[in-house]
Structures are given as structure tokens and as C-alpha cells.
Specification:
The chain has 159 residues and is α+β, with helices and mostly antiparallel strands. The protein has a domain of 100 residues: SH3 type barrels (Roll), CATH 2.30.30. The protein contains four helices and nine strands, in the order H-H-E-H-E-E-E-E-E-E-H-E-E. The strands form two sheets. Strands 2, 3, 4, 5, 6, 7 and 8 form a seven-stranded mixed β-sheet that branches. The chain has a two-stranded antiparallel ribbon with strand order 1-9. It is globular and about 45 Å long. About 5% of the residues have low confidence.
Length: 159
């Protein structure tokens, strides 16, 4: 609370003595707004929402992905990425994540959509899901087409 009197004094001095206040450079001129009768289609005037920045993606080969473990949001190990598959009907891409089993055998393989994972600069692949969510996701049933080891997959980058 001792800072409050000094803050009030400083603001009072800058208002009453403009020479003591710091001078700022003039901001760059803003682009002219479209006329009210002609709003642009992607403008915030129509939607009220600023468009989101595009999410950068990293192209990574299937062989590089299959050497990684899938981590949860808190660094929890969700399982090993065994292969990458896609649906034959709409070509949606999934990671096949193996969990449980004995020495790599008899584990349950779950399908995790590629759009729900991200890769960091260190190469760690993480999903925005918990272990319980992974275990409630669909299992790999053999109806999906496996992607070749040399094929690349676009995975969003996490910063």
C-alpha cells in the first residue's frame, strides 16, 4: 500500500507537467476502415472476432513418429506410437498407440486422431487427452489402411 501514494504523485506530475512525462513516438497510421455500406467479408466488423493465426505444422515421416511415445498434457506416458493409419473412406489420419501388454505383445491399440496431437521442438508428441480418455477412444480393428514408413504426416507444432 506504500506504492499507491507514489503512483498517484507520479501520475499527477505527468498530467500537470507534460515536459516531465516521457514522449512516445507517434504510432503508425491505421489502415482506413471500409465504408459502413461496404464491410469486408473477413473483417471483424462483420464477425466481431479477430481471425486466429494459422497453427504451424511440422512434416514428419511415419518412421520417425513410430519411434516416439505419446505423452499426455501433464507429461504422462500414454503409450507407444506403433503405426500411422488412415480411414479408407475419408482419409482421416490416426496414430495407433499401444498400451499395456507384455514385452510389447498383447497390448491394446487405440486410435488417436492426428489433429488431437502436437509435436514440440524436442520432438515429443503429446495429446490433449488423459489416460482415461485414451482408454475410452476407439481401438484399432484392422479396417484402417497403414501408411508407408516414408510417407510424411503434418502434425501441429506446440511452442
Amino acid at each position: 500500500m506504500k506504492i499507491l501514494p507514489f503512483a498517484l504523485l507520479a501520475s499527477a506530475l505527468s498530467i500537470s507537467h507534460p515536459a516531465l512525462a516521457q514522449t512516445a513516438t507517434e504510432p503508425p497510421a491505421a489502415p482506413a476502415a471500409p465504408a459502413a455500406s461496404e464491410p469486408s467479408v473477413g473483417s471483424t466488423a462483420l464477425t466481431g472476432v479477430r481471425p486466429a493465426d494459422p497453427i504451424p505444422t511440422r512434416q514428419i515421416t511415419v518412421s520417425d513418429l513410430t519411434t516416439e511415445k505419446l505423452k499426455g498434457p501433464n507429461g504422462e506416458d500414454l503409450g507407444d506410437i506403433k503405426r500411422v493409419v488412415e480411414t479408407p473412406t475419408d482419409n482421416k489420419t490416426y496414430l495407433v498407440v499401444s498400451r499395456g501388454g507384455f514385452m510389447g505383445f498383447f497390448g491394446t491399440e487405440y486410435l488417436v486422431p492426428v489433429d488431437q496431437v502436437a509435436i514440440s521442438e524436442e520432438g515429443a508428441v503429446s495429446a490433449n487427452m488423459t489416460l482415461a480418455q485414451l482408454e475410452s477412444s476407439p481401438t484399432a480393428d484392422g479396417t484402417h489402411r497403414s501408411l508407408d514408413e516414408t510417407r510424411t504426416v503434418g502434425i501441429p507444432e506446440r511452442r
